[in-house]
Amino acid sequence: MGHFVNVEDLSSNQVMHLIDRAIAYKKGEVKHVTGHVVNMFYENSTRTKHSFEMAQYRLGMHIINFEVQTSSVQKGESLYDSLLTMKALGVDTAVIRHFDDNYYEPLMNLGINIVNAGSGCGSHPSQSLLDMMTIYEEFGNFETLTVAIIGDLVHSRVAHSNMQLLKALGACVLLVGPKWYFNERMLQWGEYVDIETAIEISDVVMMLRVQLERHDDVMLMSAEGYHESYGLSLERQKRMKPHAIIMHPAPVNRNVEIADALVECSQSRIVRQMENGVYMRMAILESVMEG
After folding, report:
1. Cα dihedral angle (150, 155, 158, 162), rounded to 10 degrees?
2. Which of 57, 103, 139, 163 could tie 189 with a disulfide, CB 3.0–4.6 Å?
3. Whole-prediction pTM value?
4. Structure confidence at residue 97 (pLDDT)
5. Is 268 helix (H, G, I), strand (E, B) or coil?
């Protein structure tokens, strides 16, 4: 595969291949992938960073963790020059999270594989793939499904990747959230509807965190007001289809976008998403390193 930077670059066959490989790893397949990988996280991360690390350990890769706060970034070194250094040291693949939506564009010809672990408000392809794996495990297809993506649509890189990929895979995508967290450009991938409609007709209810760190101003309503208007409350959960599942890329703001009691309820697949992240990232690394 080479670089893995955006879901737009993946065909449906490539997506299904990655899902199949991730499921094989989950079922116990053991494989060693040789190579040196560096993890470069310019933004905070818990699930993505550590699931990539676990994936790398399980594949038997040699791992370097690049610490931004103690590196020459603090002396003014650019991402390009830091990566140039990693290439000179013998690193084959770089897993990078960065605040720039398109940080990877000037890095593509450096001779080192780029794996996008989240780019600003732009895209989060590995999260999107593990979400697709979780949905496929549950339903076995995408074409018959209605998926609601609810919350801070405009600032969520997960939402951007998921709405594009779900549309490409044949799902019906519903978009829900405050008008100020919505962009009409998104209508090419889904229909903008009210939350009550989305909750009642969706097979997958995918909640999003309000991305306060990406806002230019303060939150435009209280946490309580947001939960009442756009959150998955206990009352709304009761109106979901019996077979419908709840998803969230996490971290979760409990009792804001989702009621505390629903995070680990029987319909929730939030913890499974975290678990699947390791296996999908194993599949991604395998494809990048061997492709």
Report:
1. 60
2. 163
3. 0.95
4. 98
5. strand
